[in-house]
Specification:
By secondary structure, the protein is α+β, with helices and mostly antiparallel strands. It folds into two domains: 249 residues, FAD/NAD(P)-binding domain (3-Layer(bba) Sandwich), CATH 3.50.50; 158 residues, Elongation Factor Tu (Ef-tu), domain 3, CATH 2.40.30. The protein contains twelve helices and 17 strands. A six-stranded mixed sheet has the order 6-2-1-7-17-16, with helices on one face. α2 packs parallel to α10 and α3 crosses α4. The longest helix is centred in the C-terminal third of the chain and has 26 residues. The protein is globular and about 70 Å long.
């Protein structure tokens, strides 16, 4: 969507702290409206445990933005909404995609370079490489904090002090990346689950490594017995369920992995088409050259020496060479349902607005979407516009509503139970629809669920169109 709203002419810049996905998106939304932005990024002055470059919007975990299906999937719907609202992150993803079945995945280096170049070359953006270790001064005025899951420790402590909170963290894990040339394609094969063709894909976009029952059981035993990284300093910090290490999933039951990242459905081994694998490990292309593949769903906190040994137990990866092994880092997020108002402003100090994963959303797309929203809300204030709330029926509105007040707090004086959330249809207001097929027969089970999703996405698309017409920000 080309921007057609009012333009700013303000001397006071808006400060954005954090040059990740959310901070980059926020800065872009402000700058394209003529608003001066100072974007503060601590890398390379200060490094993190997960980043490897000083590029803006560097992807540190997966390279996937998940499903791009805007009709049947909530995250695909969020993609569509962000594109309609002029998202820099979605433009970067679309221009740097790699095949990934029904998902939108990107070449992570080209993606980050695209975002960095766009912001560095914009006349309204000034990028300052420095570490912010305390609350920004009052003189800065409106400030957006988008420091993300790897917020610098002293800055996180200043947020704790300001908000009166006790904890801002949970654990997140990273999956290993394998050199393609080291994968044994006499054992593995290319195929997307159910041969699904996605953006830039062919229906054969994943590498699949089959396991017999005996191989799966041996792999599981090794996984459970392996040495793991311990974080005693942060003991008690919860994991996010959407990004569990494989060894933590394995501890939940011997069939958990087979019903999760190693599920053997929708795939047929062309070398043994009549023999159904007991489990399958998938790898997804990680760069445009096709020289690197990440192991899907294999986030891990295993020690490096153990990772290489155990992952080479997977058929097809017996000679695997790793471009990067998995790891674990601490993520930071607010108890946003109590601390932020409906416009993502801090209740204790309204000049501060938060964006991205630190607000308690999870995932690249969700983080970027909240950055987009924060940018639009701040731009509206700066331009003196009256911006209506994002419709709760849209993916963006549903996500913001969950973050800022849709969560039910723990009772009986227990600790807050608010945890990061991916976008999902459970966050949308219910919808009434005629659950019958073309012949008037009442739909049940999966058919009814699929029709409900289509009704929700159709309503969301129509409501966002109306919102855009009323709010030419």
């Amino acid at each position: 969507m080309a921007y057609v709203g009012p333009m700013a002419n303000t001397a006071q810049p808006i400060h954005v702290i954090g040059g990740g996905l959310a901070g980059s998106e926020t800065a872009w939304q402000l700058a394209r409206r003529g608003i001066s932005v100072v974007l503060h990024e601590m890398r390379p002055v200060s490094k993190t445990d997960a980043h490897v470059t000083d590029q803006l919007a560097e992807l540190v975990c997966s390279n996937s933005f998940r499903s791009d299906d805007a009709v049947n999937n909530a995250v695909g719907l969020l993609h569509a909404e962000m594109r309609k609202l002029g998202s820099l992150i979605m433009e970067a993803a679309d221009r740097n995609q790699v095949p990934a079945g029904g998902a939108l995945a990107v070449d992570r280096e080209r993606f980050a370079a695209f975002v960095s170049t766009r912001l560095q070359s914009h006349p309204n953006v000034t990028i300052v490489r420095e570490t912010i270790d305390c609350m920004p001064p009052i003189e800065w005025g409106r400030t957006i904090i988008a420091t993300g899951p790897l917020t610098e420790k002293s800055f996180a402590e200043s947020i704790l002090e300001l908000t009166g909170e006790r904890q801002l963290a949970f654990f997140d894990a990273i999956a290993p990346i394998v050199h393609f040339e080291s994968i044994d394609m006499n054992i593995a094969w290319f195929q997307s689950r159910y041969d699904k063709v996605g953006p830039g894909g062919s229906g054969a976009d994943y590498i699949n490594c089959p396991m017999t029952r005996e191989e799966y059981e041996a792999f599981l035993d090794a996984l459970l017995a392996a040495e793991k990284t311990e974080f005693k300093e942060w003991e008690g910090t919860p994991y996010f369920d959407g990004c569990l290490p494989i060894e933590v999933m394995a501890e939940r039951g011997r069939e958990t992995l087979r019903h999760g990242p190693m599920k053997p459905v929708g795939l047929t081994n062309p070398q043994s088409p009549t023999v159904k694998p007991y489990a399958i490990v998938q790898l997804r292309q990680d760069n445009a050259l096709g020289t690197l593949y990440n192991i899907v769903g294999f986030q891990t906190k295993l020690k490096y020496s153990e990772q290489a040994r155990i992952l080479r137990m997977i058929p097809g990866l017996q000679h695997a060479e790793f471009a990067r092994l998995g790891g674990i880092h601490r993520n930071t997020y607010l108890n946003s349902s109590q601390l932020l108002d409906s416009t993502l402003q801090l209740k204790a100090q309204s000049r501060l607005r938060f964006a991205g994963q630190i607000t308690g959303c999870e995932g690249y797309v969700e983080s970027s979407a909240i950055g987009l929203a924060s940018g639009l809300l701040t731009a509206a204030e700066t331009l003196g516009c009256n911006l209506e709330p994002f419709p709760a029926t849209t993916a963006l509105g549903a996500l913001i509503n969950h973050i800022t007040g849709g969560h039910i707090e723990t009772i009986d004086n227990g600790p807050p139970s608010f945890q990061p959330m991916n976008i999902n249809f459970g966050l949308f207001p219910p919808i009434a629809f005629d659950a019958v097929d073309a012949n008037g027969k009442k739909l049940k089970g999966p058919d009814k669920g699929a029709e409900r999703k289509r009704a929700l996405t159709a309503r969301a698309a129509a409501d966002l169109d109306q919102w855009v017409l009323k709010n030419p920000i």
